[in-house]
């Protein structure tokens, strides 16, 4: 495929690159976050890199009461990804506040707390406890976890139920705290769901959660997961994530978006940024590379520098510029590469 590289003005060698981004009122020094569910509250990752050096930690989804999750086996490898059927296992909000959130505060990490629940009332009670505790920067509302026994708990599958949960969380939260609705790609129109949660009080959206999938063990000739189905994550879902980000950004140009789904390199992160993501979360890659968030942050900076961007914000939604504008810029620079990895650069 032929690619055209447009320069926006190169950063001078040795300069500090501006990776800052905004998620509503929340400013982050980097767009790279962890993805909920893949690194608990970041304590283990801190052994591999300084977790305060990335944009922030998104915690594993916290529920009102302790939860044991689903039966084992509950993970299975797939081509370019994996299935998980963990089932929102966790210690409950009280334990989370006393241990994990307290540690994150002491560590000085930017923290986005992911919350989940079986009913709107449960979501509201968790949000209310967080409001009293404080000490975090935003809430991610997990209304789209596919690996629960009751499919009725996947509130993001309908605009009205998604909006109801967000309204409840907003009503029970500090009105200064940004709230992000985590959406499912397993819907007919993700833009409709995004618009509904935005109108209900969400600051922005996190897209995408895992897709519902299934694996058959051909030795036992039975489902590989005890729960039969699970959430598919990893590089296999990245094109779907990019499509969802693109569609939401096209329809809702001012809505903050946290993109996720199969990000394993800075190049992958750049693709989501160009599609319209204001920040990205790294998840499945952490399982085989615990330092992936830090590595991806460095790679993303290199990808941006190599294309002549002077800041991250210049690249956000850059792929949405008018085609005529891109053609004009290309003609002015007179440089088009002719290979997948052989990049040429166009100067202004």
Descriptive overview:
- It is a single chain.
- The chain is α/β, with parallel strands linked by helices.
- The protein has a single domain (30-295, 315-323), classed as Aldolase class I (TIM Barrel), CATH 3.20.20.70.
- It contains nine helices and 16 strands.
- It has helices spanning 93-107, 120-133, 159-171, 190-199, 238-251, 266-275, 292-306, 312-315, 323-333, and strands spanning 21-23, 26-28, 32-34, 57-58, 75-78, 81-84, 111-115, 138-142, 179-182, 204-207, 211-214, 216-217, 222-223, 229-233, 257-260, 279-282.
- Helix 5 runs parallel beside helix 6.
- The longest helix has 15 residues, at 93-107.
- Mean pLDDT is 89; it is low at 1-15 and 334-348.
Count of helix runs? 9
CATH third-tier fold name: TIM Barrel
- In angstroms, what is the radius of gyration? 20 Å
Secondary-structure-derived class = alpha/beta
β-strand percent reads 15-25%
Widest β-sheet, arrangement of strands: 3-16-15-10-9-8-7-4
State the major sheet: 8 strands, parallel
- Secondary-structure element series: EEEEEEHEHEHEHEEEEEHEHEHHH
Fourth CATH level, the homologous superfamily: Aldolase class I
How many domains? The number is 1
Oligomer: single chain
């Amino acid at each position: 495929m032929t690619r055209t590289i447009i320069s926006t003005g190169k950063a001078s060698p040795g300069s500090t690159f501006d990776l800052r981004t905004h998620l509503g009122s929340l400013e982050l020094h980097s767009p790279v976050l962890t993805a909920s569910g893949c690194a608990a509250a970041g304590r283990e990752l801190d052994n591999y890199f300084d977790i305060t050096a990335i944009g922030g930690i998104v915690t594993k989804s916290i529920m009102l009461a302790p939860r044991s999750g689903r039966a084992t086996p509950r993970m299975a490898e797939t081509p370019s990804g994996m299935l998980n059927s963990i089932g929102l296992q966790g210690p409950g909000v009280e334990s989370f506040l006393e241990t994990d959130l307290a540690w994150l505060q002491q560590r000085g990490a930017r923290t986005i707390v992911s919350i989940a629940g079986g009913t709107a009332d449960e979501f509201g009670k968790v949000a209310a406890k967080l409001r009293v505790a404080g000490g975090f920067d935003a809430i991610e509302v997990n209304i789209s976890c596919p690996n629960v026994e009751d499919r009725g708990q996947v509130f993001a599958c309908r605009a009205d139920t998604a909006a109801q949960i967000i309204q409840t969380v907003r009503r029970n939260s500090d009105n200064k705290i940004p709230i992000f609705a985590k959406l499912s790609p397993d819907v007919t129109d993700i833009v409709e769901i995004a618009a509904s949660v935005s109108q209900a009080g969400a600051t922005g959206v996190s897209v995408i959660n895992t897709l519902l999938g299934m694996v058959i063990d051909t030795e036992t000739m039975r489902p590989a997961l005890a729960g039969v189905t699970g959430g598919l994550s990893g590089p296999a879902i990245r094109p779907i994530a990019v499509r969802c980000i693109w569609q939401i950004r096209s329809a809702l140009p001012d809505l903050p978006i946290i993109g996720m789904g199969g990000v394993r390199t800075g190049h992958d992160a750049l693709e989501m940024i160009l599609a319209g993501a204001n920040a990205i979360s790294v998840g499945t890659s952490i399982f085989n590379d615990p330092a992936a968030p830090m590595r991806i942050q460095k790679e993303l900076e290199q990808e941006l520098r190599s294309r002549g961007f002077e800041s991250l914000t210049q690249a956000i939604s850059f792929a949405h510029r008018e085609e005529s504008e891109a053609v004009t810029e290309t003609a002015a620079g007179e440089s088009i590469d002719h290979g997948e990895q052989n990049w040429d650069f166009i100067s202004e």
